[in-house]
Design brief:
homodimer, 639 residues, alpha+beta, 7-stranded mixed β-sheet, globular, Acyl-CoA_oxidase_C (chains A, B), peroxisome (chains A, B), FAD (chains A, B), oxidoreductase (chains A, B), fatty acid binding (chains A, B)
C-alpha cells in the first residue's frame, strides 16, 4: 500500500532485498514503513540506522567466522567495542536527561548486536555512573568525567556468593574508624565474597560496594553503598587487600567479565560513602520462595516418567519379538498401532517436561545455575533436540490423536469393542458413562491419592475426544479441506487430547506400580505420594478444561487440587534429598560443583573456579585499558 | 531407617560423603537404598555401577579442565569413547534380545555421561543396526558382524534439508535399472540433500538412505530404504558420486557429527533395498501445524511489551528528574512505589515471555533452529540471565503483590482512595463492583477487541487480590509465622496476582495506544488486532481462574476466547512478515542465515555451512577409525 510518508522514508527505510518473502510481504494489509514511522518517529529511526550502520562499517564489529572465539579474545573484543562506543560519543549527558528514549535505543541497538556489549556499557555508564550521580553529592561528581573518558571503569557490587537477591543477608562490613575518618571494608569469609559482579572480572577499577555499616558502639545501621577502588587504572593490578578475579564461563554473554572480590580490611575515606544510594535497596520483607515447591513436581515426574519409559521399552521388545517371529496376527498389528500412539506422545511429554524442569532448576539455582561449570546449560542444550528429532513434537502428537479418533469412529460405526493389547484404551468402553462423571471428592485427605487424577484424566480424555471429533466434523461441514480442518482442530483439541491421553497412561501405570502388594511397606507412603503429586500436578495444567466441560464446578474443586499439591510437596519435602540420591548419577558423571553429593556447594564452586586458568591474573590485553584512552567523540565525524 | 536389604546393599550402594546434606538425608521417611533396590533390582544396579566405574577409571573419560574442547577434538574423543564401549563389550546381541532393559540402562548411563556418546553409539548399533537386522533378509546379515567390530560405521539418512518430519515430501530418488539390476540413488538438488544425519558428518561409511522408488514405466512406488556406502572404510574418503560433509556446530551434543550428503547417480546393487524397512514410515496423513499460530502471539507480545517498556522508561525518567530536583512530595514518593511495583513484575513477565518465545521459534524452525549458526541458541542464552539478575523473578513478583496488598489494606482500613500517579491502580476504586462483573460478550465479533481482555483482567486482579488477602489472613490465623504464611500464599495467589496486574497494565497501555485518534487510519486495523491478540492470549493462560471465580461460566466463554485467538492469528497471518520487517534489526546485526531479510534460507544456510573450515575434509583423526579396529571384549576383564 502506498502512503504519503513512504517517499520521504525511502532513504531511511529502504526496501528489503527481493526473494521468496516478497510474495508474503505483498499480502500485508498496511505499509510497514508507515508503521515504523508511526511507532518510532523519524528521529529515532535515524538514530538507530546511524548506530547500526556505524557498527556494520567498522571491521571491529565483523562477526567472527569459523566458530566461537576463545573467551579471553571475546572479552578483549568486547572491551574494545565498548571503548569504540565512547569514541563515537553515541551518548551524551544532555541526551540522558533530555531524551531518555535515546538511551534506551542505544542500549537496545548495542544489545541486538551483542548483549555482552550492551551490558558492559550499561553497567559502567548507567548503573555505576547513576549510583554515583544520584548520590546527589557534589563531592562525588569528580568521578563523572573519569567515567566518561574511561579513566576509571566501574561495577556495581551488591550480590554475594551465598546471598543473591536477599539484600538483608549481605555480610560484607564497613566499620567506621573515627580516628582516621575512614571506613574499613571487609569480607568475613569466602561465602561473603562479592560474586557475579559484571565488569569486575577483568576490567573494573572502581566498585560501588554494598556493605553493612557499623559505627563504634552504635551497632549496625544496615546496608549502605561505598565507592571502593579495586584496581590500579595504570596497571589493572588489584589494590592491596583486594582479591579480585573472574568467575569463569557462563551459558551466554561471555563477552562480559563477571567477577568476584574479597576485601581484607580495605580502608577508604569517609567521603566515599554514597549517602543517597540507599534508594536502591528495596523496602519490605523478603521471602525466598519455597524452591522445593518449584522442583518437587519435577522430581515426581522423573520417577513417573522413568517407570513409564521402562514399561514402554518392554512393550516395544515384545513387539520386536513378534516382528522377528513373523507374527502376522491381528493382535500384533494392533499392538504396533497402540505402541506407535504411545511412543508418539511420549517424546513430546518427556522432552517438554525435561526442558521445563531443567530451566526451573537453572532459575532456582539463581546465577550459579547460569555458570557453565555447573552444567545445567549442557543438560538443557543436550535435551533440547529431543523436542525436534524423529519428528517435531506437535507433528508427533497428531499420530496419537489420530489413533484415538479412529477408535472412536470404529466404536460409533460398528459398535466394536475398544480393547487394546496393552489395555491403555479399554476405559473407552465406558465412554458415555465417564462423560457423565463429576469431581466428587469429599475431603482434602481423599484428594491425596493418584486415584483422583486418574478418574479426572479418564473424563478429560473422553471429553477432549468428543470435542475433537465434533470440531473436526464441524470444520469439514463448514467447507474446510482436510488440511485446514486438522489444522484448526490441532491447537486446542487434538494436541491436548494426545497429551492428556499419555499423561493418563503414565499416571495409571505409576499408580498401579505404587499400589501393588509387592511394594515393601516402608516405601509405600513415599511412592504413593510421588504418584499422587505427579498426577495432580499434571492434571492441574488442564484445570481450565475441567471447569469448561463441567467436571469441576464451584471454587472448591480447583482450590482443593492446589492445596493437595502443596500438601504433598510439604509431605515430600523431607524425603527430597533421599529421592534424588536414589536416581542421581555419580558425581563424576554429573560433573557439577553445585550438584555434588556432599552438598558442599560453595567449597566446590570455589575449588572449580580457582582451577580455571588466569582467574586472578589481569587480562593479557590490559594496556588496551591503561594506555589507549578514548578521546570522546574523536570518531564522531564518521557518523 | 534400617532394613534387611541394607547390609547386602552396602558394597553396591555405599553411603554418600558427609557434608551439609547429611541433616536433610536424616529426615527422610524411608531408606534410599531400599527404594533403589526395589525400583531397579540388584542386577541392574550392579550393571549401572559397573558401567559408571569403568568410565570413571579410564582417563579417556576424564572431564576436560579449563573450558570447552575445540569441536574437532571433542568429536575425536567421542569417537574414541564409542570404540571403547565396543572393546568393553558392554552390549551383546543376547542381551539385546533377552534383557532389553539392559540396553536401555547402557544407553542411559552413557547418556548421563554425555548424550553425544549415547547418540553416536545408539545411532550406529541400534538405529542403523536394527534397520538392517529387522529387514528380515539373510542377505543383509553379512553387515551385522561388521557393525559389531566397527569394520563399517552406520547412519540413518531420512531427513532432507527442506523436509524434516514429513516423509511424504522426501525427494531423493532411487531409479531401478533392470539392465544392470541396480538402483541409482540421486539427489535432485541442494534442497533435497540428506541433512542433520547423526554420524554422517565425519564417521559413517554406510547409510540407510530413504528415497522414492521408481521403476521404468511403473512410476513411483513411494519411500523405501536402501543401504548405500558413502565412504571407503580404509581411508574415510567419500565414495564416487557422494558429496558428504559436516553441518557444523549445534547448540549441544557437539561430540556427535551430524552431516549432509548429496548423491549424484550413485549405483547400488538390487539387493541393497531393505525390503522390510518400510515399517519405519508411519501411516496416516500429516499436517504441519500452523507455525504462525505458534509464533503470532509472541509477535503481538513483542509489540505490546516494547510499547510498555518505552512508556515505563519515560515514567522512570520523570521519577529520576524528581529525585535530582530533590522533590520530597507525597506524589514523588507514591510515584516511586508505583514504578517499583511495575518494574518488579516487568522483568519476570518480559524475560519469561522472551524465553518461551525464543524456545518456540527454536522448535518451530526444527533442526535448523538447533544449528549454532542460526543463533537462536545465542538469543536464548543471552536472554536467560534476565530471569535471575537484579533479583530472581519469583522474588521480584512479591514486590508487586506486596504493593497491591498494601493498597487493599489502606482502602479497607481508612477508606482512602486508590489513586496513583500513573493511574495503574485507579480501577481498584470500583473493587466491589468489578468483583460482581461477569463475562458477557454477545458474539465472537465483539470478542475481537482488547477491551474484552481489559475488562476480564480488571476482574481477575480484583479476584486475586481478594483471594491473596484472605489466604494470607487465614494462614496467619492458623498459626503460620510470617515466612510460612507468605510462602504458602505465593505459589498460587500472590505470584499470579503480580503477573495479572502487570499484564493488565501492559494490555491497558497498548489498548490506549492503538485506539488513540492519532493512529493513521491505514494502521488502525493491524494495531488493534495485535492489541486484541496479545490481550486474549495472555488472558487465556488464566482461564482456570476465570472459571473458578465465576467470571466465566458455561462452555461457550472458554471456547469463544480460543476461537477469537485463532481468528486473530488468521487475520494477522498475511501481515506477519511486514510486522517483523518493522521491528527486525538489520541482517548484519541478526547474523542468522535462516533469518535474513531476503528469505533465501536454504541458499543462506549452504553459504554459511560451506564457509566453515573442514566441512568436506575427512577428520584429522581418520586412522583411529580405519586402522585401530576394536577387538570386541578385549578389555572386558577389566570390568
Amino acid at each position: 500500500m502506498a502512503s504519503s510518508s513512504e517517499g520521504s522514508g525511502d532513504a531511511l527505510l529502504p526496501d528489503f532485498p527481493r526473494g521468496p518473502l516478497q510474495a508474503y510481504r505483498a499480502r500485508a494489509s498496511f505499509s510497514w514503513k508507515e508503521l515504523a514511522l508511526f511507532l518510532e518517529g523519524e528521529d529515532m529511526l535515524r538514530l538507530k540506522k546511524t548506530i547500526f550502520s556505524a557498527l556494520e562499517d567498522d571491521p571491529l564489529f565483523a562477526r567472527p567466522g569459523g566458530g566461537d572465539l576463545p573467551m579471553e579474545k571475546y572479552r578483549e573484543l568486547n572491551f574494545l567495542r565498548c571503548r569504540w562506543v565512547f569514541e563515537h560519543d553515541l551518548l551524551r549527558v544532555e541526551d540522558m536527561l533530555q531524551s531518555p528514549l535515546k538511551v534506551r535505543a542505544l542500549v537496545n541497538c548495542l544489545g541486538m548486536y551483542d548483549w555482552s556489549l550492551a551490558a558492559k556499557f550499561f553497567l559502567h555508564m548507567l548503573v555505576f555512573g547513576s549510583a554515583i550521580y544520584n548520590s546527589g553529592s557534589e563531592r562525588h561528581f569528580k568521578y563523572i568525567p573519569k567515567i566518561f573518558n574511561m579513566e576509571i571503569f566501574g561495577c556495581f557490587a551488591l550480590t554475594e556468593l551465598s546471598h543473591g537477591t536477599n539484600t538483608k543477608a549481605i555480610r560484607t562490613t564497613a566499620h567506621y574508624d573515627p580516628t582516621t575518618e575512614e571506613f574499613i571494608i571487609h569480607s568475613p569469609d569466602f561465602e561473603a565474597a562479592k560474586f557475579w559482579v559484571g565488569n569486575m572480572g577483568k576490567t573494573a577499577t572502581h566498585a560501588v560496594v554494598f556493605a553493612q555499616l557499623h559505627t563504634p558502639g552504635g551497632g549496625c545501621h544496615g546496608l549502605h553503598a561505598f565507592v571502593v577502588q579495586i584496581r590500579d587504572p595504570k596497571t589493572l593490578l588489584p589494590m592491596p587487600g583486594v582479591m579480585v578475579g573472574d568467575i569463569g564461563k557462563k551459558l551466554g554473554q561471555n563477552g562480559l567479565d563477571n567477577g568476584f572480590a574479597m576485601f581484607h580490611q580495605v580502608r577508604i575515606p569517609r567521603q566515599d560513602l554514597l549517602n543517597r544510594a540507599g534508594d536502591v535497596t528495596p523496602e519490605g520483607t523478603y521471602v525466598t520462595p519455597f524452591k522445593q515447591w518449584r522442583l518437587l513436581p519435577y522430581l515426581a515426574a522423573a520417577y513417573a516418567l522413568d517407570h513409564f519409559s521402562k514399561s514402554l521399552f518392554l512393550d516395544l521388545a515384545e513387539l520386536q519379538q513378534g516382528w522377528l517371529g513373523k507374527d502376522t496376527s491381528a493382535r500384533q498389528a494392533e499392538l504396533g498401532r497402540e505402541i506407535h500412539a504411545l511412543a508418539s506422545a511420549s517424546k513430546p511429554l518427556a522432552s517438554w517436561t525435561a526442558q521445563r524442569g531443567i530451566q526451573e532448576c537453572r532459575e532456582a539455582c539463581g546465577g550459579h545455575g547460569y555458570l557453565a561449570m555447573n552444567r545445567l546449560g549442557h543438560l538443557r542444550d543436550d535435551n533440547d533436540p529431543n523436542c525436534t528429532y524423529e519428528g517435531d513434537n506437535n507433528v508427533l502428537l497428531q499420530q496419537t490423536s489420530n489413533y484415538l479418533l479412529s477408535l472412536l469412529t470404529r466404536r460409533t460405526q460398528g459398535g466394536a469393542h475398544c480393547k487394546s493389547p496393552l489395555k491403555t484404551v479399554d476405559f473407552l468402553e465406558a465412554y458415555p458413562d465417564i462423560l457423565g462423571q463429576r469431581f466428587e471428592v469429599p475431603s482434602l485427605e481423599d484428594c491425596l491419592d493418584s486415584s483422583v487424577p486418574l478418574a479426572a484424566y479418564e473424563w478429560l480424555v473422553c471429553y477432549l475426544l468428543r470435542e475433537s471429533d465434533q470440531k473436526l466434523n464441524q470444520e469439514k461441514r463448514s467447507g474446510s479441506n482436510d488440511f485446514e480442518a486438522r489444522n484448526n482442530c490441532q491447537v486446542y483439541y487434538c494436541r491436548s487430547l494426545a497429551l492428556a491421553f499419555l499423561e493418563l497412561t503414565v499416571v495409571r501405570r505409576f499408580h498401579e506400580h505404587t499400589h501393588q502388594p509387592s511394594v515393601p511397606p516402608p516405601l509405600r507412603a513415599v511412592l504413593r505420594r510421588l504418584s499422587a503429586l505427579y498426577g495432580l500436578w499434571s492434571l492441574s495444567q488442564h484445570t481450565a478444561l475441567l471447569y469448561r466441560g463441567g467436571y469441576f464446578s464451584g471454587e472448591q474443586a480447583g482450590k482443593m487440587i492446589e492445596t493437595a499439591i502443596l500438601d504433598l510437596c510439604s509431605q515430600l519435602k523431607d524425603d527430597a534429598v533421599a529421592l534424588v540420591d536414589v536416581i542421581a548419577p555419580p558425581d563424576f558423571v554429573l560433573d557439577s560443583p553445585i550438584g555434588r553429593a556432599d552438598g558442599e556447594l560453595y567449597k566446590n564452586l570455589w575449588g572449580t573456579i580457582l582451577q580455571e586458568g588466569k582467574v586472578l591474573e589481569r587480562a593479557s590485553w590490559w594496556p588496551q585499558f591503561s594506555a589507549n584512552k578514548p578521546v570522546i567523540g574523536s570518531s564522531k565525524s564518521k557518523l
